[in-house]
Every structure is written in structure tokens, then in C-alpha cells.
Give the backbone structure.
Amino acid sequence: LSGCTFRIACDVTIPLCGEQGCSAVFGPQKGADPEMIRQMDGWLEHFAALSQEKYPAADPLRPGTGAAGGLGFAFLGFTKAVLESGVKIVLDETKLEDYVRDADLVITGEGRLDGQTVMGKAPIGVAKTAKKYGKPVIGFSGCVTKDAVACNREGSEMCIRDRPIPASAWQQRPVPAFMGSKFSESLTAEVFEGPVAVIIRIG
């Protein structure tokens, strides 16, 4: 591995440890309670300290080291790696922009739309590409959490529809905008169970 270099697709910029580390951010998604998160963060901090004794470049506070549960830390600390925007690599390699340019409608999706979506996840990257050509975007998600309001703060306007969109509507030109509840701080529902259709507009 010493003779290899790596381009690592990385969606997030969180560190390995701490209040914004991977245990604190990803743990609740996997069912970890506060005590479990505290323990896991301590284990990772100890592991990072041991790693630095052998590999001084293994910095647990470096942005991206908390990606994928700590794989970012492993790649940056133990190999010749650089972290790049995961969605940028995917969009470049798939030449998505060429397809969006001639599209009538852009469809994207994510298993769970939440506060992490703005951290370089695919839906926002796709929506920004679509905006460049003035294309409407529909995102499908298994569920949408209240903290998806973070997407609004990043310049996107997201509206949800928690009922099926009739197939006949997709045949209309232009495609109608199915507007549900615009995300705001005043939302009372914590989670919209899916499938959920999300209209994404980058303002």
C-alpha cells in the first residue's frame, strides 16, 4: 500500500471524535443511546491516540475522519489518500450533467432525508446540477426527518408530499409542482414515513 495513492469519495466533513464526531452523529441513527455514544467515542479516541504513536498523520480532528464510522480516519492516517466530495466524483464519472441538460424532470432519492443530506449527499448535489439548467427535481425518500430543514438553510426549498403522486400527473407537460408542507422550524411531525416525494428547489 505504501506505493499507492487513493481518491476517497467522502460525503461528510465530521471529525472522528467529539460532540460532532461519528459516534455522536451516526450513533442515534443506528439505535445508540447517550451512554453507548459516550463509550464509543471514548474507544475511538483511545484508538486514535494509539494510532498517532505509530502514524503521526493520523489526526482524529481532521475534517472527514469521522466519515463512514471512522474509515476516513483510517484512509487518511494509514494510506496516501485524499478525501474528495463523494457526490462530485459520482457526478463527474457518470457525466450526469450531460443527461440533466436534456431532461424534462430530474429524479433523485435517499433512504432517509435529514440534517446530514446537506453534507454533500447526492440529492443536494443532483439538485444543484439541475438548477444550472432550470430543471425541476423530485426526490424520493423512505422517510424525512424534521432536521431536514437544514437543507433550507443551505439555499434549497424543499416541500414534501406524503401521499402517492398519481401516475397520470407525470405525463403532463410541464410536470406540475406537487406542493405539500414546506419544511420549517414549526413542523410538528418529527418524521414523515415513506415513501415520501420531495420537491427540491435550489434558490
About this structure: Strands lie at 5-10, 80-85, 106-113, 137-145, 156-161, 181-182, 191-202. DSSP finds seven helices and seven strands in the chain. Residues 66 and 203 are 30 Å apart (CA to CA).
